[in-house]
Amino acid sequence: MTRLIPLLVAFMMLWPIAGFAAPVPYLLQADRSEVGFVYRLSGAENRGTMPVSAAAIVIDFDNFGASTVDVTLNVAGARTGLIFATEALKARTVLDAAAHPTIRFRSTAVRARNPADLSAGGEIDGLLTIRGVTRQVTLQAALFRQQGTAEGDLRQLSFRISGQLRRSDFGASGYADIVDDIITLDIAARVVSGG
Q: What is the pLDDT of residue 69?
């Protein structure tokens, strides 16, 4: 699994969890959020990005397990850093952007390793839909106060989510002779309180 970026951890401090009696809805800061992914092309590691087009996030600070995440990605906006690889990624044999313009993740369970200290991170189980194929996945997650916010201010939060998947599990198996099956996710999402 992709590790948390140490610089992010250094810049952001976890807030104390207190004073919340109800779940809090959060709105995505789309211009400050993206899904990063790492893939191997002909043995060389490359990085790409895909924009987050929509997100519905609710955090229950009194019962973290009741929190929910529903995120939609824009496949057409994906970039790999290499023009030919970007076009191949969107092709019918890989993500098939024409027929499946979005990727969606919906949480089914959220677990904090230590509910009293969210800096310890946690896991999010959910249903990931790619190319119309839905599979259960588990992602590693951490939640932070955004840089520059005051201690105890939960209005602006940052998520760091990581995980791995096999693209062939979703039928995205094109170019298997030059692109590895394992894709590593490195997701950065920033949200603001909507409630």
A: 92
6-193 topology per CATH: Lipocalin (2.40.128)
**DSSP of 64-129, one letter per residue?**
GGG-EEEEEEEGGG-B-SSHHHHHHHHSTTTT-TTT--EEEEEEEEEEES-TT-GGG-EEEEEEEE
> Where are the chain's structural domains?
6-193
Q: Give the span between the Cα atoms of 113 and 116, in whole angstroms.
A: 9
With H, G, I as helix, E, B as strand and everything else as coil, classify residue 10: helix
Is the per-residue pLDDT at 7 higher than 60?
Answer: no
Contacts 24+ apart (CB under 8 A), 168-172: 169/133, 169/135, 170/128, 170/130, 170/131, 170/133, 170/135, 171/130, 171/131, 171/133, 172/93, 172/94, 172/95, 172/96, 172/130, 172/131
Q: For residue 21, what pLDDT is reported?
A: 53
Task: Say yes or no to pLDDT of 84 above 70.
Answer: yes
